[in-house]
Amino acid sequence: MKVEANAAMEIAVAEVKKTEVERGNKVLVTPLYGVKGEQPMCYHVSIDGCNILLDCGWNDKFDVDMLKPLAAIAPKVDAVLISHPDTAHLGALPYAFGKLGMNCKVYATLPVHKMGQMYMYDHFLTRQDQGDFQEVFSLDDVDTAFAAFVPVKYMQLSMLRGKGDGISVMAYAAGHTLGGAVWKIGKDAEDVVYAVDYNVRKERHLNGTSFDAIHRPALLITDASSVDREVPNKTTRDAKLIDSILSSLRMNGNVLIPIDPAGRVLELILLLEEKWAQRQLGSYQIVLLTNVAYNTLDFAKSHLEWMGDHVTNAFERRRENPFNTKFLTLCHSMEELQALPPGPKVVLASFGSLEAGPSRHLFAEWAEDKSNLVILTGQPEHGSLTEQVVQLSAKATAKKKIKLTLSRRIPLEGSELAEHESSRKSSTSTELEKKESETVIAEEEMTDIKPVEAEAEPMDVLFGVTTVGSTQEADLRRRDTLTEGFTPISTPHGPMFPDEVWEPTMTDYGQEIDIETFHQISQMSSGIPIPEPMKETTVVDDLDVANIEEDEEEEPQEVPTKLVTETREINIRATILTVDFEGKADGKSVRTLITQAAPRRVVLVHGDAKETKTLKDALTAGLPGVQIDAPDAGKTIECTSASATYKIRVSDALFQKANMRDMAGYKVGWVNGVVGKALEEGGAPMLLPVSALNSNADGMALAPSNATMTKVSAQPGSVFLGDLRLSDFRQALAQEGIIAEFADGVLVCANGRVTVRKDGDEKLVVEGALSQDYFEVRQILYSQYSIL
């Protein structure tokens, strides 16, 4: 019997090892671009053969050469995760879908989906006004890319399909932009966390992020760009900004704030509205100038649930919507801005890089006036006009000269307009002639088929009933065919057998049908003129026909334009002010959050060489034993876990006996069982209750050895689930009436009779005499955990 038991045990072990995933899930990380420099972000992660793209950004120059690494992988991508709605995170999606063959689902929160679409619409409309942008991407490409989006909510578990079967994705609030996300990718018992451009501070419309739901992920991919950032005091920063704006306005100057069309501009709008109301500055105009100004503000008004608790509470209690602005004026073009009443203005214009859009034209117009002010609210994009302006602002006045290339479209006039109209008419005439020629050829190829009139039956004649020709065998014998006899016809004939066409002469109510009425309607809707006699004798009472004529009259004709480009040399005399409104975490917060998350491996991206080295050194010291990687662009690193993973199915009878508790998004509980056979070949073995050994009639349970059975029968020790801080425990004691104070890092309770201290990272030690106070403190401590 002992030999048989040992043999059965070996079989059980073999059954489990069949489902072992060698060294855990295979995870490969390849930064396509966006490492060791301030570039857009795009990173390729492969999990067991499923290709996931983390962000798909581009720069405001739309440099196609930058996307060569993306072009190689785009057709193979199975899913894309987007963290923020700006160009640096999703700008390359229209090009990837339209030109690179990408065809997959794109996961993002609803605000990122909608705001990102506004970003790309504004980019296209701006570039198209300054040149031919169709070769990069079109509005159809934008629509195709955003039709692939799968909007998700925060903490909503979404399962991938196809190659991603078994992989889940979940978004957490990032706090940097509306709908910005920190992504957690799960496979089996391991998580990959992607966290870039997050903010821990509470703002006027957003809450800060928190890594409380992220604990010991197998891999953390995070950015190093904020490691040296020192965020100024919020009150001091706001006061500096408003005082600078008022100083310029009171000198009859204008203020230009280059911004992106959706995203961080919402925080600026709320700040200006708040200060304008407090200081009663209604005499100075605030203007939002983008192609999608109305859409951006309208979306913000209707999606307050994605904003901070203070915003939603104010709306629920007092019906206050912070985006029902009182001082903000929306403009969608330079012409609308110029039509506003004269006077000093604060203009928030796209784009923040000054590479294109109304902000570039306003900068060229206002930069030479020393009473004007240009405010830059974020870190300038590498190689952009904004970066050049920041560098020049530190130089002497005589050296602040810069050459700008400005492009715009103007209507055609005179001979150019006449030539364009002539060319258009010639092209239209050629197309009509081609269509008419094709129609004539098609008609000649068809054979005229005579309609068949059915013979009336005697009873029909008696009662005056009109009968439609039937398709009975007798009728078919009496009808003509395409070819009579056995001699083929010499002329072309129809490609189909003849089919009778019933043209009724009366309606179902006995009214005679006037066929000419339908001919008139058809001619009017197609633009064919109606002969005069027909107009005089026929009256058409049809509202749809009138609407067709009205629409044709009201449809505006597109004004032909031409592109005009000029190069101007600008001597920058306006004041250049840089204020940090990026809404990103400071260096200390970054190091603290990563250390608290306690990842088992870290990959650093998006930061220059100095920032990357600084954060890597800090994490090496703060996370001893954790591997920290900082790969170059295009280099693949393997991040496969060293822990083997086993798949096993738990029987319903065993699962019902388990006392499950929630822990970090999982259900955790103890089970005692024995390994059984797999239900299907190649499937996972079944874990059965211990009682299955006694009633093993079908031979499902594999009997373990006596030694193994002894271990299974032993009662497992208690496991405390939770993350308790001594400061929180002190508050819990105070609520129960027990006074506790800190002394040298130790919590002294009940007048010194009981102490609680930390021993390492995961142990709390309670010491004291066995008394009523001791047991009360211990019981309160137990109540702070979920105990298995």
Automatic annotation (TrEMBL):
Gene3D superfamilies: Ribonuclease Z/Hydroxyacylglutathione hydrolase-like. It is found in: Nucleus. GO terms for molecular function: RNA binding. GO terms for biological process: mRNA 3'-end processing by stem-loop binding and cleavage. Residues 265-389 form the Beta-Casp domain. PANTHER family: CLEAVAGE AND POLYADENYLATION SPECIFICITY FACTOR SUBUNIT 2 (PTHR45922). This is Cleavage and polyadenylation specificity factor subunit 2.
